[in-house]
């Protein structure tokens, strides 16, 4: 089967998931993550997911 549509590839999805987990862990204080890294993980992860949904093959 071909991947028809604008769904992100598996590797992009995994990268976004890792960034989301880093942000969640920082938000709830499970692991101490420096504030700029915690904030940017939300921004980069969500932005990458939005771009990946619009760009075919990303």
From TrEMBL:
Membrane-crossing segments per the record: 12-31, 37-55
Superkingdom to which the source organism belongs: Bacteria
Record keywords: Membrane, Transmembrane, Transmembrane helix
Keyword presence, Transmembrane: yes
Keyword Transmembrane helix: yes
Protein name: DUF4175 domain-containing protein
Organism: Tahibacter soli
């Amino acid at each position: 089967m071909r991947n028809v549509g604008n769904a992100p590839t598996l590797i992009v999805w995994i990268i976004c998931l890792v960034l989301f987990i880093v942000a969640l862990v920082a938000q709830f204080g499970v692991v101490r993550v420096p504030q700029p890294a915690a904030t940017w993980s939300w921004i980069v992860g969500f932005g990458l997911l939005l771009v990946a949904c619009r760009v075919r093959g990303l």
